[in-house]
Structure formats: C-alpha cells, structure tokens
C-alpha cells in the first residue's frame, strides 16, 4: 500500500492528524465537537499529496472523541482510498489484552497499520500479525531525547555489541517479520541512526516522525532512509509532519494553508530521493 500510494501521489509525506481544539481556527477554537470537521478538512486538502495519514488516538480520546475518529477513518477511506492509515497508538501488551488492542485498531477503527511498543517482546506483537494485510510499526529509535535512556544502550557493556535499537531492526528484518507486516519507527532527528537502521533492515517500511515542528531535516531524512531506483522503491518510508501542516493558519483559510505546506514538504521530500 505504501509503494502504491508513493507512486500514485508521488509522495513520501505522511500527514499526522493530531487535533488540538485550542489551536483550531477561530470559529471552532476550543470546541472538541469540531475535531472531525477540522481533520476531515485537512484530509480533503491533502488527499492527493500523502503517502499515509496518521491519526494519533490520544488527541481524540482525551476529548471523548473516539466516535469522531471512527467517522474520520471512514471519511479517509472514501476520500483517499489509495492512502493507507496508520493508527498511532503505541500499544504494548501481551495475550488477550493485545488481542483486544488489535481488534480496536483493525476492526473498530479499520486502520491499515498501528504503532506498537515492542518492549514486552514478540508475543506482544503476534496478535496484530494475525490480521492478513495489516501492518505494525515498532518503536525503534524515537525522536525524543529520552530515547537514549533505553534505545541507544548496548545489549552488553562491550564495544561492538549492538545497541537495543539495532537489535530491534534485526528482528524486524528477520524473525519477527515472516509475512512482511512489520515496519519500524525511527525519528527524523537522528539521520545517522536512520541510515544505520536502513543498513540493518534494508526492506522494511520506516515511519519517520519529527520533520516540521520537531526540527528534523527533511532532506537528510530521505537520503538516510529511502532506498530504491527510478522504477521501484525497495525500502519505503513515510516521513510524518503534523503540526506544521495542521496549524499553518488559524484563520478560515486553514485547509488551503495546510495544503500549501504539505505540497512544499511533499516536493522537498521527493527531490531528496537519492536516485
């Protein structure tokens, strides 16, 4: 789905949907009842520019807007059926609880993929892989400073031992991914480490947040993570931008402004591909 959307929309841009009513245009400011209206307008404005949409579930749940998220997922299906939807939930649990989270993501919301924390091991990921055609993105090397606390630590205090994020990349390229359903989340603020992940996991999809408001360099990100040639993408990437697009304007023209920023970001990412 990512490769198809990349070809059709000529895009590596993932549009993050993180609705904050306090930042909505004036007529909807501080009114959570308009979360769907705001996000649907963004989707309509960027449907032909995105490789993926990524709604962040916490921004909906915090305002008791899960029903609006369901409506939004259905709207994306109609408006942009070619664009996969990644539900950003960062779930991480085992057994029957993981089964319920998988049902939430794939049956209730109809997502194509979901973000997961892998730190409880493979049995916390396995229930999601029982859904054919669905995918997971495992947190690997995140863009926040605290990611160093665990992800950048070596598995043993011996030089040459892999760091934890490198070990996760190997699992995603190999034993955890027999059917090609597993991708990785790698932050745009660490392009050298994106390149390291790509060297270990040359074909898995990468979801790369941190471009835009978080300060990640779009060009360095693409050069580190995208692999392919003029005919085919071998290592698909979805480079996420949320706030820079969503809140490009606080006026009535917010959707037009969002489209302008998304178009500029899409074109910047495309031009950076190392063909």
Distance between the termini: 21 Å
CATH class: Alpha Beta
CATH evolutionary superfamily: Aldolase class I
Number of domains: 1
Largest sheet properties: 8 strands, parallel
Helix content: 25-40%
Low-confidence stretches: none
In angstroms, what is the radius of gyration?
18 Å
The percent range for strand residues is 15-25%
The 3D shape can be described as globular
Q: What is the spatial order of strands in the main beta sheet? A: 2-1-10-7-6-5-4-3
Counting copies of identical and different chains, the oligomeric state is single chain
CATH topology: TIM Barrel
Q: How many DSSP H or I helices?
A: 10
Mean pLDDT rating: 91
SS-derived structural category: alpha/beta
CATH architecture: Alpha-Beta Barrel
